[in-house]
Write a structure and sequence with these properties.
By secondary structure, this protein is α/β, with parallel strands linked by helices. It has 3 domains: 84 residues, no CATH class; 376 residues, Rossmann fold (3-Layer(aba) Sandwich); 300 residues, Rossmann fold (3-Layer(aba) Sandwich), CATH 3.40.50. The protein has 33 helices and 25 strands. The strands form 6 sheets. Strands 1, 4, 7, 8, 11, 12, 13, 14, 18 and 19 form a 10-stranded mixed β-sheet that branches. The chain has a 6-stranded parallel β-sheet with strand order 22-21-20-23-24-25, with helices on both faces. β5 and β6 form a beta hairpin. The model has no long low-confidence stretch (mean pLDDT 96). The structure holds ligand Z2T. The site of ligand Z2T has 19 residues, from α6.
Length: 825
């Protein structure tokens, strides 16, 4: 720590902190104070940004006493803490969430009105912290919300990227990425803590020295270092007086580093050194599911993990803490393999710095970690080349080697003579290059390994880590993902929330199973009419937003059919596109009168990783189809296709409550869980989906009659895979042929056939995710959707049952499962 803790006997030094009055007057007074003294401006002179910052700081004041009190209580109680280690937190906007948590929404709105300010304009001013790619990052944000609401001690550790997920725009229908400079107008939600900075080393070499007791010990001398500056964020529980902490690390150059070079007179070099250090937390890697093996990414991973372990062990635990009891005080949950380097880091701390012998350190380490896997795609399993790892973290590589040696010894004991198995299970892969398999390291060291939905956990045991689940069956478990009902129902869908609360009371917000009490209301005509009014008003709100945000003109009285998620071939946005084109083709070929189509508005939202070429071609094609279909009078009022740019949490909160149909159409066995699927069901959309990820559990809970299932099952996919021939489907299915022919003809690209070739050729000759095999089944299911939608009452009934039966998907339930099956806290 830098400097001693501040000590005084002044009576106000240790509280109580006085919160502002919970009245409109109190709010106005605090707000004007923040505007004058915090922003240094007058209301009459202030910009919208001044007002937003002052409002945010006002809300912050109402949370501060609870935050300080929660911190003090946690230090006192010395309970076991969850150290959630995640390279991503996709938080979404803070203002609305924190107004909700403090129950200040109405007071704040009145207070702003009294100042002549429309609070909606201030809400719109906030740039959301997009410190994640998609599902994995949003899951982390939901989990910390739930833990605060459940008053479970948790520190969320992560990286304060200066640039989050890129901002997406379209130019000539193609994705263009812009930097997300989310901090540029000021960030009122963070608190830097320079007194808790941490030094992190990289590179250099290791040496073996014999200590006083004659024991050989390894020492690591890094050849460069950076400082980690923690920024604290408040994580408020829902109206329970609890505020937990999210601690995000930002990289700084060390002063030594600077000064040395400065004194040598090379100013430019000193600045370069600073830039070099600060690059570590500069930008979020935008790959969802398929990481790139870039050195900077490994630096990011080690940087935040080293800061976090040091922070907990040396700055959070009492100074005299006996580290043999570490597992009683912390469980580090590894959010995928990104933080797995924490395992050798803890071994290094215990053995090299604290003098433990190896076996004792290993026992402690094994009890301090648990690992969540989020994928089944083999290309998404992280490996780091031995070469790179050894250069950047030589001591950690040594430790990994030793962990592996002792592990393989155990394997050979358990399976004598089975050398093939030992090789398969080695943490070090030999081909094509020597590399560390991070998932194996996490599985060997972790006390538990979990998948994120039942099907995923089963496939993880059977297909990804079969040797490990044979060796340690009790290590493997499932925790099905969840979503926070605070943000994704109560905040995003105020109308539905009011209807639900008027009907069954407000207990559901923190006890989502109580939505079951809505079931009987599905048969009540008046309730169904109210439910439809809610949907309609949400659609109207969305249409207004997209008019202002994107210049789109969308109808409000059609079925809203939504597919929003990262762009990935396995998620099969192209299958959705084939459906749209097939409907359109029916009309333009004269086969189907336009009036016979169910009027639908299709909405896509998706970012493609900048280096993922096929994903970018698919985006182009969706935009091209959208342009053509929307401009064609033949389908006017029947088919509309919208692709608003820059899908993010903020847009999700507007889109999902308005949706009628949720598209969850990944190839079976590829989507680990999905969480968007849960958000839609809880907001009263019906799902059309494959037997994949958490869809399986959604369908089981809401009932077959209220879910549109299609496509192959995972075993069927595996059986079809050898010798799969997509072109045979094209040859044999006239609907599919006509659809692909229309696309390939250049009809949607002003006659340009080359522009559509990448996607079409891939579909016909590769189709790794078997869109063509599931095409007919998908079309049939969509016809069942049309038929169901025609019966307004039956549809509303199903939609209400989706809401009533989806309480299981609260992330509060996920947290209970983690506590019971993994954390034992
Ligand atoms: C990610 O968002 C997910 C998996 C990853 O595997 C990486 C990222 Cl960035 C390495 C997603 C899954 O694709 C999705 O099915 C799941 O619901 C989500 O994580 C949360 O578990």
């Amino acid at each position: 720590r830098i400097g001693p803790a501040f000590r005084t006997t002044h009576p106000l030094a240790s509280g109580p902190v006085v919160s502002p009055q919970t009245t409109v007057d109190g709010f106005v007074e605090t707000f004007l104070g923040e505007l004058n003294y915090g922003q240094g401006t007058l209301l009459s002179q202030s910009t919208v940004n001044d007002q937003y910052l002052a409002l945010a700081r006002t809300v912050r004041r109402y949370l501060m006493a609870d935050w300080l009190e929660t911190g003090a209580r946690r230090r006192q109680a010395q309970q076991k803490t969850i150290g959630y280690l995640s390279a991503e937190y996709l938080l979404g906007r803070q203002l609305g969430n924190n107004l909700l948590a403090t129950n200040l929404q109405d007071i704040a709105e009145d207070a702003m009105r009294r100042c002549g300010i429309d609070i909606a304009a201030l809400r719109a001013q906030e740039v959301e912290p997009g410190l994640g790619n998609g599902g994995l990052g949003r899951l982390a944000a939901c989990f910390v919300d739930s833990l605060a609401t459940m008053d479970v001690p948790c520190i969320g550790y992560g990286i304060r990227y200066e640039y989050g997920i890129f901002r997406q725009t379209f130019e000539a229908d193609r994705q263009v990425e812009l930097p997300d400079s989310w901090l540029s107008l000021g960030n009122p939600w963070e608190f830097p803590h320079p007194e808790r900075q941490v030094l992190v080393g990289f590179g250099g070499r290791t040496e073996t020295v014999t200590d006083a007791a004659g024991v050989e010990r390894s020492t690591w001398t890094p050849d460069w270092q950076v400082l980690g500056m923690p920024y604290h964020y408040m994580v408020p529980g829902f109206r329970n007086g609890v505020v937990n902490t999210l601690r995000l690390w930002s990289a700084r150059a060390t002063q030594d580093f600077d000064l040395q070079i400065f004194n040598s007179g090379d100013y430019a070099q000193a600045v370069r050194a600073q830039t070099f250090a600060e690059n570590i937390s500069k930008v979020l890697y935008p790959e969802d599911s398929t990481p790139q093996g870039k050195e900077l990414r490994l630096q990011q991973q080690y940087f935040f993990v080293a800061c976090s372990l040091h922070d907990f062990i040396d700055n959070t635990l009492p100074a005299d803490f006996d580290l043999r009891r570490l597992p009683e005080r912390i469980i580090f949950q590894l959010n995928d393999t990104h933080p797995v380097i924490a395992i050798p880091e803890l071994m290094r701390i215990l053995v090299d710095r604290k003098g433990f012998d190896w076996d004792e350190a290993w026992e402690i380490t094994q009890a301090c970690f648990a690992y969540t896997c989020h994928t089944l795609l083999p290309e998404a399993l992280e490996v780091w080349s031995v070469d790179l790892l050894g250069r950047l973290l030589p001591r950690h590589l040594e430790i990994i080697y030793r962990i592996n040696e002792e592990f393989l010894e155990r394997v050979r004991e358990a399976f004598p003579g089975d050398e093939m198995r030992a090789r398969r299970m080695s943490i070090i892969a030999e081909y094509p290059d020597r590399a560390v398999r991070m998932a194996y390291l996490a599985t060997v060291a972790g006390a538990k390994v979990n998948g994120v939905a039942e099907l995923h956990s089963q496939l993880l045991r059977d297909k990804v880590l079969p040797d490990f689940s044979q060796l340690w069956p009790e290590k493997f478990t499932n925790v099905t993902n969840g979503i926070t009902p605070r943000r994704f129902v109560r905040l995003a869908n105020r109308r539905l929330s009011e209807l639900v609360t008027d009907t069954i009371g407000d207990g559901w917000v923190t006890d989502l199973d109580r939505l079951r009490e809505l079931e009987p209301w599905a048969d009540d005509a008046a309730f169904r009419a109210e439910f439809r009014r809610v949907k309609r008003e949400n659609k109207e709100r969305l249409v207004k937003l997209l008019r202002v945000r994107d210049g789109l003109e969308l109808p409000t009285d059609t079925m809203l059919d939504v597919m929003v998620k990262r762009l990935h071939e396995y998620k099969r946005q192209t299958l959705k596109l084939l459906h749209i084109v097939s409907l359109y083709e029916g009309v333009v070929s004269g086969r189907v009168p336009a009036e016979d189509l169910t009027a639908r508005t299709f909405v896509f939202g998706a970012k493609a990783a900048p280096g993922y070429h096929m994903a970018k071609e698919i985006i182009f094609l969706v935009n091209a189809v959208s342009d053509t279909v929307n401009a064609d009078p033949a389908v006017a009022g029947r088919l509309t296709v919208a692709f608003p740019a820059n899908y993010n949490v903020t847009l999700a909160e507007k889109l999902i409550p308005a949706a009628d149909l949720s598209e969850q159409i990944s190839l079976a066995g590829k989507e680990a869980s999905g969480t968007g699927n849960m958000k839609f069901a809880l907001n009263g959309a019906l799902t059309i989906g494959t037997d994949d990820g958490a869809n399986v559990e959604i369908r089981r809970l809401v009932g077959d009659d209220n879910f549109f299932l299609f496509g192959m099952t995972e075993p069927e996919v595996e059986r079809l895979r050898p010798g799969y021939s997509p072109s045979s489907y094209y040859e044999e299915n006239p609907r599919l042929r006509a659809t692909i022919d229309l696309l390939a003809s250049g009809h949607f690209t002003g006659g340009d056939r080359r522009a559509v070739a990448p996607v079409i050729d891939n579909l016909l000759h590769q189709d790794s995710f078997m869109a063509l095999a599931d095409f007919q089944s998908y079309l049939d299911a969509q016809e069942r959707v049309d038929a169901a939608y025609a019966d307004e009452d039956a549809w509303s009934r199903s939609a209400i049952l989706n809401v009533a039966r989806s309480g299981f998907f609260s992330s509060d339930r996920s947290m209970r499962d983690y506590l019971e099956r993994i954390w034992h806290a």
